[in-house]
Amino acid sequence: MKNILIYFGLVLAVVALYGFAFTFAADEGPDGKQVFIDKKCAMCHSVESVGIEATKKSGAIDLSKAGEDVEADFMTKYLLKEEKIDDKAHKTKFNGTDEELKALVDWLLTLKAEEE
Ligand code: HEC
Questions:
Q1: Distances (CA, A) of 44 to 4, 39, 101, 115
Q2: What is the separation of C-alpha 14 from the centre of its chain, rounded to a whole number of angstroms?
Q3: What is the pLDDT of residue 22?
Q4: Are the C-beta atoms of 21 and 92 separated by less than 8 Å?
Q5: 15, 54, 58, 63: which could join 46 in a potential S-S bond, CB 3.0 to 4.6 Å?
Q6: d(CA 66, CA 22)
Q7: Average pLDDT of the residues in 51-77
Q8: So what's the pLDDT on residue 110?
Q9: Which residues line ligand 1 (CB under 6 A)?
Q10: What is the mean pLDDT of residues 22-40?
Q11: Residue with the nearest Cα to atom 26 of ligand 1?
Q12: Considering only CA atoms, which residue is closest to atom 15 of ligand 1?
């Protein structure tokens, strides 16, 4: 009887360890939306399509469609102030890791008008 309990204990431990491994695997790398929030982009921007409200009261630019007609490379450079839109560089230069920037850009590129 005691042996069976030990056996079940071991099986449980193995299952639990697998569970942990999966959680970590799914959690790899920063999340773009979280980077957006952490880097305070929402000070000046809302993303209404995903429910992010700008903290600034007026004049916030909504980025719900920021991913339209834009390449990852351009977006990356724009956020680093190496590229301009309509002859204007972005207000702020992204400060964070390359990984964070990549996650952020990947996420921004998913922001498009919904197709009807
Ligand atoms: C201090 C205010 C401010 C902050 C903070 C800010 N932005 Fe902006 N952003 C602007 C303004 C203003 C524009 C419009 C272009 C211009 O006039 O410079 C803009 C434009 C953009 C655009 C281009 C929109 C388009 O399609 O024309 C993107 C994308 C963008 N911002 C992303 C971000 C991201 C990502 C962050 C956070 C890392 C961020 N912004 C933080 C002020 C800000």
A1: 61, 11, 18, 26
A2: 32
A3: 64
A4: no
A5: 54
A6: 32
A7: 95
A8: 96
A9: 36, 39-41, 43-45, 61, 63, 66, 79, 85, 88, 90-92, 94, 104, 108
A10: 83
A11: 66
A12: 90
Least confident window among 60-69, 86-95, 106-115: 106-115
> What per-residue confidence (pLDDT) applies to 101?
98
By most ligand atoms within 8 Å of CB, the mutation choice from 70, 81, 92 for ligand 1 is 92
- What's the CA-to-centroid distance between 4 and ligand 1, angstroms? 62
Distance CA(96)–CA(107), nearest Å, equals 15
Per the CB < 8 A criterion, the answer to whether 52 and 111 are in contact is: no
Q: Tell me the residue type at 114.
A: E
Angle, CA 111 vertex, CA 27 and CA 96 arms, to 5° = 50
